[in-house]
Design a protein that fits this description.
There is one protein chain. This protein is mainly α. It contains 18 helices and no strands. α4 crosses α8. The N terminus is likely disordered.
Length: about 425
């Protein structure tokens, strides 16, 4: 079925413009948010002193939680307020749009801000009386150092930046330009998730929506069961893929050209540099932000293919991946912050296509809201199943045997829906 938002008039008559063109710079909000938060903390503490409003200083530490606030509160509200996107570029302008370097520079710019924020957060985490770089009295913080709740908020905010950064790495890692593939691995260094570069491109994209894919969630599988399966399954798969590749070219698995090892080496260098500057005390911060960051990625993995499966032919080969094998959501605000990741069917059909040319398909199954909203829902399995299971059933015309069922639960699931 043709997408009604596609326009087939001659290019000369289209006068088409990308109405999101200048909005893509908003993707830099996550890697700059901690600087904005620091400014607001200082302003509120100063204002509280000047006006004698002690409550203003008391609530100022809430700004250290700016990352979770952005993901769990602000983006879902904005998705509801601004609604669907609905704009697809004309086919005739795809090549021109692909070659417009403005769009790729928007993704490149994420990385220096990401590294600056990470270093600044390392300073905030370790600063205090007698510290190597002094205390935080210049921010009006009593005692000169962050309290425990503020430190956890800071780590989660930087972890949110790292999680969204994995999406930036995802965009860059699919490209054929060597520089962009290296930038992808640099972006992944913060969360120590460099093996994603291998597993996603050569593992997930081959096995997507099959029972063999650790990153495709199954009908009846909770996020909390999926999380360790995807984390450790993806890790083992990445290592196996690189070991097989190196074996074919006659190299040992422990070799500088092993893309899993050289990606992890970037993390060792980055984490080691921060520990050398701020002391070992920065390492708990790095661990917390990394775990939260890659967990965010896995939450998105969970909702992208829940319950969807590719059929097998008589020879056991899976059918080709189609728009029917990914959950999409064309909400404009999350589209901006995730570089059109929500147009996931087109991404799987055309993995090297740049984000600005990804299209929304009418025939693809759609989530009820943007990815940002659905992340929170995924944390609560009963609510997730109430919202999503009926959509999977409807997608397969009520025939649950056509879905990707959680192994060991098949009989119970079929019985629950009267199909045993």
């Amino acid at each position: 079925m043709a997408n009604p938002t596609l326009d087939d008039r001659p290019v000369a008559d289209l006068q088409w413009r990308d109405r999101k063109r200048h909005l893509w710079v908003l993707g830099l909000v996550p890697p700059t948010a901690i600087f904005l938060a620091t400014g607001f903390v200082a302003l509120m503490n100063w204002g509280g002193d000047q006006l004698g409003w002690s409550w203003l200083s008391a609530v100022s530490p809430a700004w250290w939680w700016v990352g979770p606030f952005l993901i769990y509160v602000l983006l879902p509200i904005l998705d509801v307020f601004f609604g669907p996107d609905g704009q697809n570029p004309p086919e005739e302008l795809m090549e021109q749009l692909e070659e417009d370097k403005y769009y790729r520079y928007c993704t490149y710019a994420y990385i220096p801000f990401q590294m600056a924020s990470l270093a600044f957060a390392g300073y905030l985490w370790t600063a205090g009386p007698g510290g190597r770089f002094g205390d935080l009295s210049w921010l009006g913080i009593d005692g000169g150092s962050l309290g425990l709740v503020s430190k956890i908020g800071l780590a989660f905010s930087i972890g949110a930046m790292g999680g969204i950064g994995i999406n930036t790495a995802h965009e860059l890692g699919h490209k054929k330009v060597s520089l962009e593939r290296w930038l992808s691995k640099i972006t992944l260094a913060q969360t120590f998730y460099g093996h994603f570069f291998i597993e996603h491109n050569r593992g997930h994209h081959v096995r997507v929506a099959t029972p063999d894919d650790p990153a495709s969630s199954r009908f009846g599988e909770s996020f909390w069961h999926f999380l360790p399966r995807s984390v450790f399954g993806g890790l083992k798969s990445a290592w196996r893929l690189e070991a097989n590749r190196l074996k074919k070219v006659g190299k040992p698995v422990v070799h500088p050209s092993n893309d899993v090892l050289n990606a992890w080496a970037m993390s060792v260098v980055l984490w080691g540099a921060l520990a050398a500057v701020f002391g070992w005390q920065v390492l708990p911060f790095m661990v917390i932000q990394a775990i939260y960051g890659f967990s965010l990625l896995e939450t998105v993995n969970y909702l992208e293919h829940y319950g969807l499966v590719r059929r097998q032919n008589a020879r056991g080969r899976f059918e080709r991946c189609t728009p029917a094998h990914s959950w999409n959501s064309d909400h404009i605000c999350t589209n901006i912050f995730l570089y059109h990741l929500q147009r996931h069917s087109d991404h799987h059909a055309n993995p090297t296509r740049r984000y600005q040319t990804l299209r929304s398909f009418d025939e693809a199954p759609n989530l009820p809201s943007g990815y940002a909203s659905m992340i929170t829902v995924a944390y609560f399995p009963p609510i997730w199943r109430k919202i999503m299971d009926k959509r999977v059933l409807a997608h397969y015309d009520g025939d649950l045997t056509r879905a990707n069922l959680q192994p060991g639960k098949e009989a119970a699931l079929l019985a629950k829906y009267g199909q045993a």
